[in-house]
Amino acid sequence: MPGSIVVGTQWGDEGKGRVVDIVAKECSHVVRYQGGHNAGHTLVVDGETFALQLIPSGVLYEHVIPVIGNGVVVDPHVLLAEIEMLGAKGVDCSRLMVSPQAHLVLPYHQLMDELAETQLGDAKLGTTKRGIGPAYADKASRTGIRVEDLLDSDYLRERLHAVLRERNIILREIYGHEGVDPDVLADQLITEVAPKLSPYIGDTIGELHTALQSGERVLFEGAQATFLDLDHGTYPFVTSSNPVSGYALVGAGLGPGAVDQVIGIAKAYLTRVGSGPFVTELIDEIGDYLVETGREYGTNTGRRRRTGWFDSVMARQSVRLNACSEIALTKLDVLDQLKIIKVCVAYEVDGRRYEYLPHLRRLHDRATPIYEELPGWLQDLSEVTDRSELPNEAIDYISFLEQQIGVPIRFVSVGPGREQYLRFTS
After folding, report:
1. pTM for this model (two decimals)
2. What does the pLDDT average to over 178-198?
3. 13 catalytic, yes or no?
4. Which position among 37, 41, 103, 232 bears the catalytic label?
């Protein structure tokens, strides 16, 4: 079964949407398998920018069926607004399919998220306050509202009354909020959301199994990235779901035999948003340069990202966790004006060298980077279309990363445009 997974190998914002857009040309379906609208993909096509939050990047190809899988949590208002935005830009969304088993992000989830984060004060986790965590918490506690519930108005109203009976006690007694009226919310969902969303709800599992059995290539994309994974990330500064490649199958309703390729996405340097450890972080003029040159501000939130040198320790761990078969390296052009480029090749903790992430979080917190330095190329790469056109220093940098990571680097992007990439190895 020819399935491919695209997964971020760092803390997100690696350019997954861009790589999905490239690979989707050869696919029949592109599937979003986890996360919500707390992560965005930005694509530049013919000079026009598309900022997507929920709809898979493959929607920009007329032959691709975009699928929102059961592992995603969906804010219906955000999804409908995104469909409208794409329609206004001439993009046909009629092919979109949404799993009935996906869970909904509703206004009380966003309230709980924002109020809880505010109450944490200096200990806050850096959540986007979009309600994603509370929606996944409801899913785990079996009190969630699913997409399919929009198709049964009586059941939906009954479920909302049952859920909000408890949620409103928390909102009122702990946070001092007046709470949410279940009938008002039910009326809104029944009259404004359900009629617009219902045409997109379908048998996504059946669709994907049929496609794979027919030999069509299916591409799976997640939100966030490996080190924001609920289990394998820098806990507790993580997201509320599992972005790692293994969850692609759970979040889409498939088995292990469905995939034969895992493409790990890595930025040529490192960024993260919010709190948490960052061994190679640069709090200096080079860090500022990376922010401004790489336009390192969140697609959805506008928050400034923290920046640092490439971390091979994290990259090796990601290859392990995701069984990456290859790497796509993005934003190489951002490094164009740097005379010296550093790469973290190992960590040191209490005199011990670590080639992979320390197994205990407290060790990770005390880690210091061991760097190797490489010369920069001091040349504009934005017009490069073939490996032979790269300066030797850029080739050496990519080859060094390839050696450190342990799997081939096949794609390299040299600008934000759709065609600004090259194949480094075949």
Report:
1. 0.91
2. 96
3. yes
4. 41
